[in-house]
Give the backbone structure.
Amino acid sequence: MTLDEVAGAPTPLPPAAELRRAPRPTSSRGRPLWLMWPNLILLTAVIVIPFLIGVYISFLDLDQYTLRKFFQAPFVGLQNYVEAFTSAGLLHSIWISLAFSLLTTLVCTPIGLLAAMAVNTAFRGRFLVRY
């Protein structure tokens, strides 16, 4: 026995390299990947589950009056999709949506660019317009 052990002196600590734990898996930037789990759970609860329920309901024979009883609704498969694309209402609605999007883009984009270029030039009271 040494004199230090008899006197009750503390034993020296091992070097810091020996105290290190095994590293957790990290991304390429060094952030821990386990921090993504709360986001993935929330994303699944808010987006994925309602989407899957909507796809399931689209294969059932439901309307606005029987929607509350979708567990008892009969399964019709792709019949709803065939009916939607063969009727003129859906295709007409798609055409109106595309035309509206195209026209608003063609009209609003030049107006926005002209306004941005006008505000970018120096003029009296420019700070009021930018504010």
Remarks:
- The longest helix spans residues 88-120.
- Helices lie at 3-7, 16-19, 37-58, 79-86, 88-120, 126-130.
- The CA atoms of residues 114 and 120 lie 10 Å apart.
- The mean pLDDT is 82.
